[in-house]
Amino acid sequence: MADKKSIAMNMTRYITETVSDSEFITYVTEKILYNGQSDYQQIQVFETKAFGRILMLDQAVQFTDVDEFIYHEMLTHMPMLVHPKPERILIVGGGDGGAAREALRHPEVKNLELCEIDEKVCEISRKYFPQIATSFDDPRFKLNIGDGIARLKGLREGAVDVIIIDGTDPTPMAIGLYSADFYRTIHRALGENGVFGTLAGSPYFHPEWTKLVYRELSKIFPKVAMYTATVPTYPGFLWAFCVASKGQDPRGLDRSKRLASMEDDLKYLNCGLFNAVFALPSFIRRMIEED
Amino acid sequence: MADKKSIAMNMTRYITETVSDSEFITYVTEKILYNGQSDYQQIQVFETKAFGRILMLDQAVQFTDVDEFIYHEMLTHMPMLVHPKPERILIVGGGDGGAAREALRHPEVKNLELCEIDEKVCEISRKYFPQIATSFDDPRFKLNIGDGIARLKGLREGAVDVIIIDGTDPTPMAIGLYSADFYRTIHRALGENGVFGTLAGSPYFHPEWTKLVYRELSKIFPKVAMYTATVPTYPGFLWAFCVASKGQDPRGLDRSKRLASMEDDLKYLNCGLFNAVFALPSFIRRMIEED
């Protein structure tokens, strides 16, 4: 999850991620567990003392053992909870299985399709992050290896209740996932009260990305709400997410009953936080409102 | 603001802060503006592209131009707003003037004393961070160079309305600022409805510190509330703060009127956030409640 201006990698001890032209973060590795190239990207898994195992794609940290729960919970449960009855779920990307693990905690789910372009990510996650890739054998779970945009275009109107994009940065390769055109395809695939959830970048390091997602979604969906969560091992640390709804306003909903049934299994989200995270720091509010 | 296990410093181009034994953050410097030793600590000021100027004390980043507002606003305004009428203010530490700048935005303030042990920090801040050290000539402002603990012990009972500690990490030198004994001294110095505000570490990197502050304060004050804010250039990123009150519970107060008068000048805090930040992620809530 970072600009990739330059990367230094020393297989024997250090792995460095470049955050901006002023800052880079170096991890002291205990062991390189995997380093390979799939058809789409470089995949690396390494072990650290403070963060446990870390997954890197194209030299950008995707998650670590110790804080993956924050990103996966906050990306997934917010759109799931905004929908009044999330039965049919589509996750685009997220081949590691973390978002699927969270979505399947909701007893309303009847089927969940994970559409991941890079099968190798699923393989590596099942091998090195078994506590994340818990859902691959769930009877409600279906893995679809292929292109997410094509899959969404091929869906019939109103086919799903919740769509979640668990993708990479808006690099030239992934920029198609951050456009009004794409959001129109998503809107069409969603049923009544349908809800869409996506990451919206770091307001510090990718303000243009944060603004873009909010602006383009607001053109297509009647209700769009931004919220934030802190992910210590993503450069930028305070990350923005958007939830876009065809029905209810995401803000001010009472989901205490649904949340109570799974709160013991969650490490980050709880009833109080579900509504509180929509309260944005002023500089972010001004940033997205200025357009 | 970091464990200091090892530090690499190359005066020509890179300055590195050690976060833990698994991670360090390197800043690419454009220019070293100051590098000296006071009677108490090493003080460094350097320029970066992405963060502007950065102040380091004993090789731990204290703040940067671009995000100092988050820490200073969240440390200061929360206790100030919890107090119903904050007229007499004492800040211990904070020689840079950032907390004083924020506190003096409150029209209720009649006098503010800044008790800083290291005069050199004030000097350096006035020279290199004039937008932070704005309050030194305010008629309500009084600078007291000396030891904060001694100053607090010397105060008569009930002498001040709000006390804010703007100190360094709980290193052996500063550990006295994080004990029940010290909090008892603070409680005594505070008047009716008195409020105390302090940083409580990073729940990721200093869980013991976070728990210690909450536990020790809860022994002394009837109402203690923890809240969080994300400071991108503090390792740990999500930081915990505590506000301890002799009177009103910090949670659920309506301070919209007082906040509205200064909201245009603030970059982080606003009415919605004032109450929302007390909603803690579950792992932090469990951490402080387990004792």
From TrEMBL, chains A, B:
GO terms for cellular component: cytosol. InterPro entries: PABS, PABS_CS, SAM-dependent_MTases_sf, Spermi_synthase, Spermidine_synt_N, Spermidine_synt_N_sf. One of its GO terms (biological process) is spermidine biosynthetic process. Spermidine binds at residues 72, 96. Signal peptide: none annotated. It is an enzyme of class 2 (transferase). Pathway: Amine and polyamine biosynthesis; spermidine biosynthesis; spermidine from putrescine: step 1/1. It catalyses: S-adenosyl 3-(methylsulfanyl)propylamine + putrescine = S-methyl-5'-thioadenosine + spermidine + H(+). Residues 12-246 form the PABS domain. It comes from the Bacteria. GO terms for molecular function: spermidine synthase activity. The active site is at residue 166. Its EC number is 2.5.1.16. Keywords: Polyamine biosynthesis, Spermidine biosynthesis, Transferase. S-methyl-5'-thioadenosine binds at residues 41, 116, 147-148. Belongs to the spermidine/spermine synthase family. HAMAP family: Spermidine_synth. Homodimer or homotetramer. Catalyzes the irreversible transfer of a propylamine group from the amino donor S-adenosylmethioninamine (decarboxy-AdoMet) to putrescine (1,4-diaminobutane) to yield spermidine. This is Polyamine aminopropyltransferase. It comes from Eiseniibacteriota bacterium.
